[in-house]
Inverse folding.
């Protein structure tokens, strides 16, 4: 069977309430696109009947449906990676299982790809989420913009489309904690964004607790930036420099006041000795050293993630066959 034009990857965690409606809406929407497609559901260790529903559903559409069953809960992003690894489509769309991303919006993403973009991020213009969720998202967005080079208007929106090259690069990256939209962004040559609709959850409640959200954003910052480490070095250098300045000022002042006639050597050394300032200087040096160690640790971390260092769009060279034949 030839590779389909489109793969849709959907992570599923405790979505028994949403799945029936998802099945009912997703396939007609995909049929309406007029492209060949496959749908890959990844059950992320659900503790409800989701796995059974997916199993059952696959029997009705064995040609177009793949179901991956995790044995435990590894998180939404790992589930997406698993889906990427099994996807074969020229384009891959990710979306949530709770129908907060309407499947009817996939057409908009594909239209943007037709214009030559290899990465299309969805932006939820009217979010149907609680106010604190929106507030937290906005704050984290701003933090990420500062610390990393990743420009996304709406990092939480999973309705996104990626080219095959990007999906392969993401699947090749061997990192344990990851944030797919950001990782994919680093491989994109021509990213863009489109507005998409956002609906309330069909059933159930959000699987993200405050704790999970904080963890996720920690992953995002530490996974794409060494800035938090560098802040230590910067602060350390600043403290040391200030301590040095203070030292010079204090010593000059004391030298003027000091009466050299009749002073013994003990008093003379006391002129140059200032415990507080020295302590400050050393604390600064220690912070600097901490940051320096962190810098190496950060590099080790970057190395062991073994992300593809680059992705090649094309190589323009003389006929490749000639080279092999000699
Ligand atoms: N999800 C998952 N594993 C998890 C948490 C969530 O696969 O540990 C899936 C979930 O089934 C849904 C998507 O990720 O398809 C988004 O989750 P949710 O709707 O709970 O997040 P929110 O919309 O509140 O950001
Ligand atoms: Mg949701």
């Amino acid at each position: 069977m030839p590779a389909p034009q489109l793969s849709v990857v959907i992570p599923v965690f405790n979505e028994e309430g949403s799945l029936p409606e998802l099945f009912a809406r997703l396939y007609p929407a995909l049929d309406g696109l007029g492209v060949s497609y496959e749908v890959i559901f990844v059950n992320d260790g659900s503790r409800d009947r989701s796995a059974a529903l997916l199993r059952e559903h696959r029997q009705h559409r064995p040609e177009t449906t793949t179901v991956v069953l995790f044995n435990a809960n590894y998180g939404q992003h790992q589930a997406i990676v698993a889906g990427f690894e099994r996807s074969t489509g020229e384009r891959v769309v990710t979306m949530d299982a709770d129908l907060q991303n309407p499947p009817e919006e996939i057409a908009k993403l594909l239209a943007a790809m037709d214009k030559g973009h290899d990465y299309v991020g969805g932006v939820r213009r009217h979010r149907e989420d609680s106010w604190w969720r929106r507030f937290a998202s906005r704050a984290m967005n701003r933090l990420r913009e500062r610390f990393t080079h990743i420009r996304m208007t709406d990092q939480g929106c999973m309705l996104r489309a990626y080219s095959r090259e990007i999906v392969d690069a993401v699947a090749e990256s061997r990192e344990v904690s990851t944030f797919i939209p950001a990782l994919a962004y680093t491989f994109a040559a021509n990213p863009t964004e489109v507005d998409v609709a956002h609906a309330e959850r069909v059933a159930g409640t959000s699987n993200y607790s405050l704790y999970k959200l904080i963890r996720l954003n920690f992953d995002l910052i530490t996974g794409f930036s060494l800035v938090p480490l560098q802040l230590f070095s910067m602060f350390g250098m600043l403290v040391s420099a200030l301590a040095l300045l203070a030292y010079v000022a204090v010593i000059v002042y004391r030298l003027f006041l000091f009466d050299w006639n009749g002073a013994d050597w003990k008093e003379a050394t006391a002129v140059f000795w200032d415990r507080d300032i020295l302590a400050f200087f050393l604390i600064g040096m220690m912070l600097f050293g901490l940051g320096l160690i962190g810098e190496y640790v950060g590099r080790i971390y970057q190395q062991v993630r073994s992300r593809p260092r680059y992705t090649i769009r094309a190589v323009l060279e003389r006929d490749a066959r000639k080279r092999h034949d000699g």
Remarks:
- Strands lie at 6-12, 37-43, 65-69, 91-94, 119-124, 160-163, 191-196.
- The first strand starts at residue 6 and ends at 12.
- The two ends are 35 Å apart (CA to CA).
- The chain is about 50% helix and 10% strand.
